[in-house]
Every structure is written in structure tokens, then in C-alpha cells.
Amino acid sequence: MNIQKRSDHLPTKIEDLNKWILIGKVKLKSQIAAIKAIKDINESIAAKEAALSDTQDLAEELLYAEARLGEMLAKGSPKGTFKKGGEKSLPDGINKKQSHISKSLYKNPDKIAEVVSEAREKGEVPVRQHVLNRIRSPHSMVGVMTGNEENYTPKEIIEKVRYVLGVIDLDPASCEYAQRVVKAKRYYTEKDNGLSKTWKGNVFLNPPYGMPKIRQFTDKLINELSNMSSAILLTNDQTDTLWWQKCASEANLICLHKGRISFDTPNGTRTSPTNGQTLFYYGNEKELFYCAFSTIGLIVRRLRDDDAL
Asked: pLDDT by residue (tens digit) across 269-285?
């Protein structure tokens, strides 16, 4: 992502940009307080959404502004003076900590994009600390998929999936290594771009868990249900997200896994994500799904409008 393109409307001098950021932070703090006040006095949903949207926009702009500042500090600005005693020094108003943080943001635009996308999905405000946490602990929300370079769905889960589906016709987010366990008739790698294909038959999907890919893959699954015989979806149990809610609303049964699933790695060890997992079932063999997965989690289903309580 081009940081300069995202921030081409901002001040072009380091000192001016730094002042813009400081003012923006004060404004952001005020807007966050305003959102809380709107919630406390039970204002309309429209008022809350409008206030949140404005605040999210400002927060995102501030993140890219700080990244742009980091870029200018890292490269040196023709419009600022850096030299003092033959060594590079910081402009007035910028300390070493601020310089380090800004440069970290500049070097990790993908982490900014991830945090912004996830925050908007959850109805939250993306803040700098969330990005820094992602940079320091890149695997805290790592994408875990059957075809991830590091983590693979374990055999004991795949055996249950195969018990329900009979045969796995398609794994649309996978790789050759993962197929030693999954053994799908067909699979798509990152290079194949499964999002561009039609999904048919019995599908098992363990998508990349980072945003926006998890939303893209789960949306694709829901949109392809009419083309498929049945499907089992494995994700993190992020029940507060829109994509999770959408998956749950369409599922015939849901397994809320007890504890966290330990995923396989190429070196033979096992790893585990920071939160639990959900398995969604889309199909008619509900008894089979219950028999297979009730031993490892709570089985639930959504009540429809015409269901008796």
C-alpha cells in the first residue's frame, strides 16, 4: 500500500505534519468521548453510526499520517533540516520514541490496513496501539488455514469432517502439504485464487483468519451454498463480527469447540491461536454432524422466526 498516496492531502513539511497529527489526536479523543455520550443518553442508532463512522475515518487518517511522518523521517525531507554535528538529528517537536513509532507504522502498512479493516468490521475505532501490538506480535491474529505456510488443520478434525461429508470434494484455501491430511479431490492454492472459482460438491473451508480475507472467503462460501452439496467451515469464534454472524445465520448447525484447536506445523510441532474456534455446518446430515462434533463442543442452531420456543 502506498503511504504517500493515502496521505497526499496532508502537510508536506515534517513540522507542519507533526502539528496536524497532534491536533488530530485531540480531536479524536473528543470524538470518542462524544460516542460514549451518545450511547449513555440512548440517542438514535443513526446518530451513533454517523458519529462512529466519522471517528473511524479520522482514526484511519491519523494512522496513515503518522506512517507518512515515519516515511519522511526515514528518508529525510528536502524541506526539513536534519543535520547537526554531521549526524542525523530529529526535527523540533519530535522525540526518539515518536520517531521510532512513526517509522514502524511506515514499514508496516499491511498491519495498518488489517487493524482498520477489523475495527470497522467490529464497529470499533482503529487506534495506533492496536497496530503496534500487531507489529510486535504478528501471530496474535495470524491467518490459520489448511494451506497456510505455517499452520494446518489437524487430522482429528479432518476425520470428523470426512465422517460428515463422506468425501471432501473441494478445499478452496489450501496447499500441497496440507493435502497430506485433507485429501480433497480438488483444492485451490493462494496462486489459484479460490475466490475466483465456482465451489461445488462437499466443501471444507478453513480460511485465512486475517481481515479482509476471512470476510471475503466466508462471503464466498455463503454465496456459493446453492452450488454445493454441503459444507463445513472452520473459523475463529469471533462472535462479535459481522462475518461470523452471517455465517451463523445461514448454518444448519454450529459447533462451539471446547478450548482451542492445536494446529499442525511443518516441523511437526503444534500451535494454537489466541482464541477458540467455531465449526459451521451447511447441509442435511445434521445427525451425522451432531454425532461427530458433539464430543468436542457444544452444538447449537439458530432459531428461525417460525421455530417454536
From this structure: 776 666 789 999 999 99
Q: What per-residue confidence (pLDDT) applies to 60?
A: 92
Q: What does pTM read for this prediction?
A: 0.60
- Nearest by Cα to 265 from 124, 166, 139: 139
Tens digits of residue pLDDT in 104-128: 999 999 889 888 888 887 778 888 8
CA distances 263 to 116, 160, 164, 248, 280, Å, are 27, 15, 20, 23, 18
Stretches where the chain sits below pLDDT 50 are: 77-82, 84-87, 139-145, 147-149
Q: Which of 103, 109, 127 is nearest to 2 (CA)?
A: 109
pLDDT digits (tens, 9 = 90+) for 169-216: 999 999 888 899 999 999 999 899 999 999 999 999 999 877 788 899
C-beta separation of 59 from 24 below 8 A? no
Return the CATH number of 155-300, one of 3.30.70, 2.60.460, 3.40.50, 3.40.630.
Answer: 3.40.50
Domain locations along the chain: 3-136, 155-300
